[in-house]
Write a structure and sequence with these properties.
The protein has a two-stranded antiparallel sheet. It has helices spanning 3-6, 8-26, 31-45, 52-59, 63-75; strands at residues 79-80, 90-91. The chain has one domain: Arc Repressor Mutant, subunit A (Orthogonal Bundle). The protein is built from five helices and two strands. The two termini are 24 Å apart. The radius of gyration is 13 Å and the shape is globular. It has 92 residues and is mainly α.
Length: 92
């Protein structure tokens, strides 16, 4: 049994954190982009798909800023999303 299966959600959090550390070395993010990515990761740990409004509320900005940050994360290959889709944001 692998580590992340043994510890359930906690193990998944460790797995995501290790992946984020690996990617930080390869594709650096700004602090704002990293903050949004961490918010997205917390939603995904709870098996939820956030709306732009929920992301904006947690981030403390407006939806247009979230859209801009998500687009930049997409160009850096950190996330994939389908515009105009309710559950289209995926962390790569």
């Amino acid at each position: 049994m692998t580590e992340h299966k043994k510890f359930g959600v906690y193990g998944r959090a460790i797995e995501i954190e290790e992946t984020l550390k690996e990617y930080r070395r390869k594709k650096p993010l700004t602090k704002c982009q990293e903050k949004l990515l961490n918010i997205l990761a917390s939603y995904h740990l709870n098996h939820k798909q956030p709306t732009y409004q929920e992301l904006a509320d947690n981030y403390g900005c407006v939806k247009s800023n979230v859209a801009m940050l998500l687009q930049r994360l997409k160009t850096k290959n950190w996330v994939y999303f389908t515009p105009a889709s309710k559950s289209g944001i995926q962390i790569l």
